[in-house]
Specification:
By secondary structure, this protein is α+β, with helices and mostly antiparallel strands. 31% of the residues lie in helices and 20% in strands. The chain has helices at residues 32-39, 59-63, 83-95, 147-156, 171-175, 184-187, 190-193, 215-224, 259-271, 291-303, 319-322, 327-330, 350-366, 383-386, 417-433, 452-456, 460-473; strands at residues 10-11, 18-19, 50-52, 74-79, 100-103, 119-123, 130-132, 138-142, 194-200, 206-209, 230-237, 246-253, 277-279, 284-287, 308-315, 337-345, 374-380, 403-411.
């Protein structure tokens, strides 16, 4: 990725392991802890589950994360096969007073994750089932599924819903924090399509959560669910595809002198976005419909004089991997330190953005080891998102996210982290001053070190309600490593 590429992502959418068997398969039981696990946890697990330790061959493949930045550490990993295996592991961790973390797509990067030291990793990789009921349109999705799996399954079934733009991100990990995507202008956020969640609570109980069952927990789960349990399965309401599932795509590259005209056009289209529109990366434009219909929205971009302007048509399931010249897929690579900050904007302030662009170019020039970094702007459709009442769930920023700014610095030398933190936090503060909003707002899944109110809302009743639910469902704060709610 070129170090001076400004990524303006427009989504103006309407669019050897140790087996669990106690009597066989254990390798190198050379520590007291391994013997303890062999005699206590392992007998409770099903035959298809496994327990993995750091010296085992599969350790790296199971524990490798999207970023090493402020990452958790583990003394062992459990790969459960069944819901009962998850329950047994949670109860074991609680009995030993060990921190644990459930893992799906492995993309979470909240700084609080580093508080988990020598904990237990619960890998949900076996929970990747996807079932689509063609009669009702309900898609049942396992807690370890990623967006590409869901997109492919739904497309094959002739259905769709809002999924994230990045194919390798976990559906439930991102979805519990809101779940943005290309089709949110038509269908709302991922949480707006949720109908039921099956959750393992901190005490080991397994409950169904919906508007009808455990409705108080449902309110909180939809927007900040990582604080209350492990979601092993979820039901989503899907819909028939728009435009037969075909999307008009344009890849554009603009020179430096076109920055202000590009931002001005962005601002205009934010104010006048159709439900089915979605530009996407530097600048990649995606429209849920035919090329002929989409051109009335892409023509203004072509008139700006891009250095490249390449048109194509993709089916819905291929969008994550084929659009944006593959740059989104590059972001799936799991290595190095990806240090991410974010801020929500109402509009682009041209003077501020020119200053940010100049500062970013200088920073990368001074620190070439960070030159794989990206400055990404996501502009998703808002119509269906804002049609849902703010009070309906813990998700609080429906009216404060015209533009999601994602600044990801990517490097392999951890000594650069302090330098990156200082520069990126300063740039975030600069953009926040001219954001157009009266307070700092940040999308939960992109949050770094902001006040809790910037993530979960500034209304006092919101935080109080969250605290009450935390005291009820997780009084020991077992789930407190991802933007935690205080007791």
């Amino acid at each position: 990725m070129h170090s001076h590429t400004l990524l303006a992502c427009f989504l103006l959418s309407v669019v050897s392991a140790i087996t669990a068997l106690p009597s066989q398969g254990f390798t190198r039981l050379d520590t007291f802890e391994k013997h303890r696990v062999a005699s206590t946890l392992a007998p409770q697990l099903s035959n298809g589950s496994s327990i993995v330790f750091p010296k085992d061959d599969s350790w790296a493949s199971i524990t490798e994360r999207w970023t090493k930045y402020q990452a958790p550490s583990f003394q062992m990993a459990v790969v459960p096969e069944t819901e009962a295996d998850v329950v047994a592991t949670v109860k074991y961790a609680e009995s030993r007073n060990l921190a644990f973390l459930a893992q799906g797509g492995r993309h979470g990067f909240a700084p609080e994750l580093q508080k988990i030291r020598n904990g237990i990793l619960i890998s949900l990789e076996n929970f990747d089932h996807i079932r689509v009921d063609r009669a009702s349109g309900i898609a049942t999705v396992g807690g370890g599924s990623v967006y590409q799996q869901v997109a492919s399954a739904l497309y094959a079934a002739g259905r769709e819903m809002t999924v994230g733009a990045c194919s390798c991100v976990g559906v439930l990990g991102a979805g519990l924090g809101g779940g943005h995507g290309r089709l949110q202008g038509l269908h709302g956020l991922s949480i707006d399509a949720m109908r039921r969640l099956r959750i393992v609570l901190a005490n080991g109980d397994v409950v169904n959560v919906s508007e009808q069952e455990n409705s108080d927990l449902w309110w909180k789960i939809c927007g900040a669910g990582q604080n209350f349990g492990i979601v092993v399965e979820a039901d989503f309401q899907t819909v028939p595809p728009v435009s037969q599932g075909l999307f008009y795509d344009v890849e554009m590259v603009f020179s430096d002198d076109k920055l202000e005209p590009v931002l001005e056009l962005m601002n205009r289209q934010i104010q006048n976005q159709p439900g089915e529109l979605a530009p996407i990366i530097a600048v990649n434009f995606v429209y849920a419909g035919s090329e002929a219909d989409g051109r009335k929205y892409s023509n203004p971009w072509q008139q700006l004089g891009p250095t490249t302007f390449v048109e194509a048509t993709f089916n819905w399931a291929d969008l994550p991997s084929k659009t944006a010249n593959g740059l989104i897929e590059v972001q799936c690579l799991k290595y190095g330190y990806k240090n991410t900050y974010s801020v929500n904007l109402k509009r682009f302030d041209l003077l501020t953005m020119r200053s940010v662009y100049h500062s970013w170019s200088q920073f990368l020039g001074q620190h070439p080891k960070v030159n794989a970094s990206t400055l990404l702007f996501e502009v998703f459709g808002q119509k269906a998102v804002q049609a849902v009442p703010d009070q309906s769930s813990a998700y609080s920023s429906r009216k404060f996210e015209n533009i999601l700014v994602v600044m990801t610095s990517w490097y392999t030398d951890p000594s650069l982290s302090q330098t990156v933190d200082a520069w990126t936090s300063a740039i975030r503060a600069q953009m926040d001053k001219t954001s157009g909003y009266d307070k700092l707002y940040v999308y939960q899944n992109y949050a770094h070190s902001e006040p809790l109110q910037a993530i979960d809302g500034y209304e006092p009743w919101r935080l109080e309600r969250l605290k009450q639910l935390k005291r009820k469902y997780d009084p020991r704060q077992m789930f407190s490593a991802y933007h935690p709610i205080p007791i």
